[in-house]
Structure formats: structure tokens, C-alpha cells
Specification:
Elements: H1 3-18, H2 36-62, H3 66-74, E1 96-102, E2 110-114, E3 119-123, H4 130-137, E4 145-150, E5 153-154, H5 160-165, E6 168-171, H6 175-179, H7 186-191, E7 199-200, E8 203-204, H8 206-220, H9 236-248, E9 254-258, H10 266-281, E10 285-289, H11 293-299, E11 302-307, E12 310-316, H12 317-323, H13 330-352
Parallel strand pairs: 3-10, 3-11, 6-9, 9-10
Antiparallel strand pairs: 1-2, 1-4, 4-5, 7-8, 11-12
């Protein structure tokens, strides 16, 4: 077919799909122009109309509220990011006490208290020392000075084994390199911290371990065709749930979560936020480090701001609640509290600079 004929045929298909008239009026009195110019004009009109429709759709998308966008993405209504105030009993001694804790570089002279059933948020800019604080508390990096106490008793050794024995568990920032063995199965990863429970005479009782793992998979709604597939085949959100699940199986009293929702889809984010609330309601003490301010605000009973490795400000839950306009909808409240926390972080950074 000659090149000109092929082009004319393409124009005809475009116009037909766009529903363009063929140039005649209803009575057929208007003569139809012929040739490539006539087809070009009609195709250009169809293309212009498509562009107008796309711009209209973009305007409609901009007008959507955050909750509607989430609903359209995940196919269901999600309100997990709305802040829910909780009452924390601080009349009892704290579960975790950190006194004058310093690392090799960061943190610097950090002191904090964490109570049963409390979610303590840690906020700050990149390089503020948030992850370094988590690593020292959990015994991964040795402290230079200071003390860590669990229920009033100093942690025996500054090591991961000592922290785990004291009931402290870390959900690390990078799940792929620090939290999982990617080539091992879901079951193997989730049973790793508690493998001694399933061992007898140096042999692991796989059936017993898989019963526990299967229950956790169902509880956390981990999407996998089997607990015997390599964990690398799971999505990011489901991999993160595996990391959470393996430490929940160990039943720690204190959970340190370092960026627990980083790199996961928004549906999994909402499920993880809900799980954190459930753990706190069940009496677990939780430290949550996150750069996602909306998620940090939605679960934290208090927030500490770190800057340069030091705690520069503590924000109580009552102050966080006051940031949200009482007459605003959920999306506007989330936006207002995010902006207020971001401003507080920037002010703390300016003071410590």
C-alpha cells in the first residue's frame, strides 16, 4: 500500500474512533471535502477534544479529597490516617528508661521514658540521629555512655542478644538487607527469632513452626500463595508484614519501629498503622520513627523531635490535638497537623544549628 494511502487510512480510523462526523449535515446537503487536508482537519478536532477531556479529568482529580484518592487506589474506604487520641496510664513506672545515652557519634545525651500501651513518636530531619538512637537502644551499636533500663533493671549487655532477652525488638529501616533473608521462605523468616521454641534434640519441628506462622500470616493479612515460597517473591508491603510478624511471634514488651511504612503501598500502610494501634492497646510499648508525618501523627501519643542527635523538644498529645481545626474535615486536619509538625521540626533544627 502506498505511504499516502496508509496515512489516509490511519486518519479514517482515528476519526471513526473519536465519533467525528464525516463532514455532511443531517440532510446531506453540505458537500464533503476530499483529500488528506479534510481528514487532517477532522483528526485535529478529535485530538483537541480528547485533550480537553483529559484536562477536565485532571481538574476533577485535583478536587478529590485525600480520603477519596486512597479509596480509589485501594478499592475501599481507608481512615487509618485520622488521628485518634488515646489515654496512656503514666501512673505506673515506665517500661523503658533511657538515661544520658550517647553513641559514638549520635545520639548525644538522650534521656526518655516509655510507658506500657504508649506510642512514642520520634521526628526529625535526615541525619538527626533517629535511626542511630534506635540502633543503640536495641544493642546493635554500642553506647559510649548512659544506661538503658527495662522495668527498672539495666539491660545486661549492650548487644542484640541482651536487648532481645530484655524484651526489646527492632523493626529495622531497611527490611531487605537488615530485616529479611530474601532467599529463605516466609516460614523460615518468620520463625527465625523463635526457632528455639520449635527445636527438639537439635531438630526443628517444621509442622509446629508452620502452625504459628500460618496464624500470623492470617492475622497480618500477608498475601502469599504459600508460607514456603521465598520471601523475595512478595510485594514490599507484604515483606514488611513478615518482618513485623517474626518479632510479634517473639512477644516483646517493647517494639522499636524504624520507618515501618517506608516503600509500601498505601493499603499496607493503613494496615500497619492499624496494627501499631492494636499493639499499643494490648499494652505493648512502641517507639515509632518515621519520615511520614501523617502516619507518625496518627498513632503517636507523644512526639520527641531530634536534631543533631539531641532531643530538642517534646510535644504532648494534647498539643498535637490542638493543631487540628475542630470544624475541619479529616483531610484538612491531617494537613494542618502535618504542617504544624513540619514547622516544629524546622524550628528545632534552626535552634540547634
Amino acid at each position: 500500500m502506498p505511504r499516502r494511502a496508509r496515512l489516509e487510512n490511519r486518519y479514517d480510523v482515528l476519526v471513526e474512533n473519536a465519533g467525528e462526523p464525516d463532514g455532511s449535515d443531517a440532510g446531506g446537503s453540505a458537500p464533503r471535502r476530499s483529500g488528506t487536508r479534510n481528514r487532517s482537519d477532522r483528526a485535529a478536532g478529535a485530538t483537541q477534544r480528547c485533550g480537553l477531556e483529559q484536562r477536565s479529568q485532571r481538574r476533577e482529580a485535583v478536587a478529590l479529597e485525600r480520603g477519596q484518592i486512597i479509596e480509589y487506589i485501594v478499592g475501599r474506604r481507608v481512615d487509618a490516617f485520622a488521628r485518634k487520641s488515646r489515654a496512656v496510664d503514666r501512673s505506673q513506672p515506665p517500661v523503658l528508661e533511657v538515661v544520658g545515652l550517647s553513641g559514638r557519634q549520635k545520639p548525644l545525651d538522650v534521656s526518655l521514658q516509655l510507658y506500657a500501651g504508649e506510642v512514642l513518636g520520634i521526628a526529625g530531619l535526615l541525619g538527626a540521629g533517629r535511626s542511630e538512637l534506635a540502633r543503640v537502644i536495641c544493642g546493635i551499636d554500642p553506647p559510649v555512655s548512659g544506661e538503658i533500663r527495662v522495668r527498672g533493671t539495666p539491660v545486661a549487655t549492650a548487644s542484640p542478644q541482651g536487648s532481645i532477652a530484655s524484651g526489646i525488638a527492632l523493626i529495622p529501616e531497611d527490611r531487605r538487607t537488615q530485616g529479611l533473608i530474601l532467599d529463605h521462605t516466609v516460614a523460615a523468616n518468620m520463625s527465625l527469632p523463635t526457632i528455639d521454641r520449635y527445636a527438639r534434640w537439635s531438630f526443628v519441628q517444621d509442622r509446629k513452626a508452620q502452625l504459628v506462622v500460618s496464624a500470623l500470616v492470617e492475622r497480618l493479612r500477608i498475601k502469599t500463595r504459600s508460607v514456603n515460597v521465598p520471601v523475595r517473591t512478595l510485594s514490599g508491603g507484604n515483606q514488611q508484614k513478615v518482618v513485623l510478624g517474626k518479632w510479634l511471634a517473639a512477644e516483646p514488651d517493647i517494639l522499636v519501629l524504624d520507618e515501618p511504612t517506608a516503600g509500601v503501598d498505601i493499603g499496607s500502610k493503613s494496615e500497619i498503622v492499624d496494627l501499631i494501634r492494636q499493639l499499643a492497646d494490648a499494652g505493648k510499648a512502641v517507639i515509632m520513627i518515621s519520615s511520614e508525618l501523617a502516619e507518625l501523627l496518627s498513632v503517636s501519643d507523644r512526639i520527641l523531635i531530634l536534631s543533631g542527635g539531641r532531643i530538642t523538644r517534646e510535644i504532648p498529645g494534647s498539643e498535637i490535638d490542638a493543631w487540628a481545626p475542630s470544624d475541619a474535615d479529616a483531610a484538612a486536619k491531617i494537613s494542618a497537623t502535618e504542617q504544624a509538625l513540619q514547622l516544629a521540626i524546622q524550628e528545632a533544627e534552626a535552634v540547634s544549628a
